[in-house]
Design goal:
With about 150 residues, this protein is mainly alpha-helical. It has one domain. Helices cover about 75% and strands about 0% of the residues. Helix 2 (about 30-40) packs antiparallel against helix 4. The protein is elongated.
Length: about 150
C-alpha cells in the first residue's frame, strides 16, 4: 500500500515536470495565461441595462474593471518573457497599462458627467484593447486576448 502511494506521488511529479517543461519551471506562456485567467475570473458580469443607460453608470462599472486591469498589469510586469518574446510582451503590458489608465480617466470623467472627455477616453480604450488582442495573439496568450 505504501509503495503504491509512492508510485502515485512519483508519477504525479513526473506529469507535473512534463507540463512545466524540461527545466522544471512553469513556462512563460502558462504563467502569463494564469495571470490573465485570474483577472478574467474577477471581471464583473457585463454591465446591466441600468448601468449602460447613464454615463455615471458606465463610469462606475469601468471603475471596477480598472482595478482588475491594474492588478493584472502589476503581476505581468513582474514576469520575464523569453528573449524572443520580450518586444511583443512589452507591447502587451504597455497596452494593458494604457487600457487601465484610459479606463481610470473614463470612469472619472463619466462619474463627473464630462461627456466629451469620457468619449475621448472610450476611443482610447478601444485602441488599447485592439493592441492587447494583437500582442496577446502573437504571443500565444489566449487568456490575455479575451
Amino acid at each position: 500500500m505504501k509503495r503504491a502511494r509512492i508510485l502515485v506521488v512519483v508519477g504525479g511529479l513526473g506529469l507535473l515536470l512534463m507540463a512545466c517543461g524540461s527545466s522544471g519551471k512553469v513556462s512563460f506562456t502558462a504563467q502569463a495565461n494564469a495571470i490573465c485567467t485570474s483577472g478574467n475570473a474577477q471581471a464583473p458580469p457585463p454591465a446591466t441595462a441600468a448601468q449602460k443607460a447613464t454615463l455615471k453608470g458606465r463610469g462606475a462599472y469601468m471603475s471596477t474593471v480598472v482595478g482588475i486591469l491594474q492588478g493584472e498589469v502589476s503581476k505581468l510586469e513582474k514576469l520575464k518573457a523569453p528573449p524572443a518574446k520580450q518586444a511583443a510582451y512589452k507591447n502587451l503590458v504597455t497596452a494593458l497599462a494604457g487600457m487601465a489608465t484610459a479606463g481610470r480617466h473614463y470612469a472619472s470623467d463619466a462619474q463627473n458627467n464630462f461627456t466629451g472627455p469620457a468619449e475621448m477616453e472610450a476611443s482610447a480604450l478601444v485602441s488599447f484593447e485592439s493592441s492587447v488582442h494583437t500582442e496577446a495573439s502573437l504571443l500565444g496568450l489566449s487568456q490575455c486576448a479575451k
